[in-house]
UniProtKB/TrEMBL annotation:
The lineage of its organism: Bacteria, Bacillati, Bacillota, Clostridia, Lachnospirales. GO terms for cellular component: cytosol. GO terms for molecular function: magnesium ion binding; phosphatase activity. This is Cof subfamily of IIB subfamily of haloacid dehalogenase superfamily/HAD-superfamily hydrolase, subfamily IIB. It comes from the Bacteria.
């Protein structure tokens, strides 16, 4: 039976610091050899997917938290936030009176952030990298395609479709921005907190990771019951619940672990490889270290 195997990127298909496990190319070759389909399903925009991931040659890409789907570089589905409302968010984020609200506007290929967002994201990366060796730290920042700097003035309303908006702000500010789009026009891919800020990922209504996997299944002619999904973050919960089998990485968020059908090892423990061998979807490798 032909299956679709879906992978989140950060913390799942690749370790954010150490990169892609040596077992992953073998996994992908064997899935293809067995006639299965592999897909990436990430919150990242297409333009920020790391080069080492793109070099794996996975033909099915779901990016922008489900806002964009492609198969063999051909667009299958694309949706965007309302252009007028996105322009309103842009003007709000660039207003000196709203200093301190962090915001990122993400298109398919480009992202635009203000200084507050750049400061927060740079601080996050420093936290992630502070226990690394100098060599690991160099690799970590080299592999990251996103430039964490204030470039929001490069956004020109109406010229770039916005797939996702990330906000670091108070609940009242989030509600005010939500009102710009109107009821039922958006949904949260995930939310959380960072220090004193609330964190909100806004995507078009109906464009979540789970819905995107359903759309890709319909395009490929594969039943949703014949899907396996691997993820580690809160924004993967819907995807794991809707797929035939949802597998959480051991490093995953507590909420995700609670909703998964199975838990596999961390990326650098070859968790994906071990899980797929256990399920009989790929053979055991004779390669040293795998």
């Amino acid at each position: 039976m032909r299956k679709l195997i879906v992978f989140d990127i950060d913390g799942t298909l690749r370790d954010e610091v150490l990169g892609i496990p040596e077992s992953i190319p073998f996994v992908l070759r064997q899935l293809k050899r067995k006639g299965h389909e592999a897909a990436i399903c990430t919150g990242r925009s297409l333009g920020t997917v790391q080069d080492d991931v793109l070099e794996l040659g996975i033909e099915n890409l779901i990016t922008g938290g489900g806002s964009y789907i492609s198969h063999k570089d051909v667009s299958v589905f694309e949706t965007a936030l309302d252009a007028d409302a996105a322009a309103g968010v842009f003007h709000y984020l660039t207003d000196p009176c709203t200093d301190g609200v962090g915001g990122v506007l993400e298109g398919r290929d480009e992202i635009f952030m203000n200084q507050a967002a750049a400061d927060i994201l740079n601080q996050m990366n420093l936290e992630k990298s502070k226990k690394l060796t100098s060599r690991q730290r160099e690799k970590f920042f080299k592999n990251e395609k996103i430039m964490y700097q204030d470039n929001i003035e490069e956004f020109h309303p109406g010229q770039v479709d916005i797939h996702k908006i990330c906000l670091w702000c108070s609940p009242p500010v989030y509600r005010r921005i939500g009102e710009m789009f109107g009821a039922g026009r958006t949904e949260l891919a995930q939310q959380g907190s960072w220090n004193e800020y609330g964190y909100y990922e806004i995507i078009p209504h109906g464009a979540g990771k789970g819905a995107a996997v359903v759309r890709l299944c319909e395009y490929l002619g594969i039943g949703i019951q014949d899907t396996l999904a691997f993820g580690d973050g809160r924004n993967d919960i819907e995807m794991l619940k809707i797929c035939g089998t949802g597998i959480a990485m051991a490093n995953g968020a507590d909420e995700l672990l609670a909703s998964a059908d199975s838990i596999c090892g961390k990326p650098m423990e070859d968790g994906i490889y071990v899980e797929l061998v256990k399920r009989g979807l790929i053979p055991r490798s004779s390669l040293r270290g795998i």
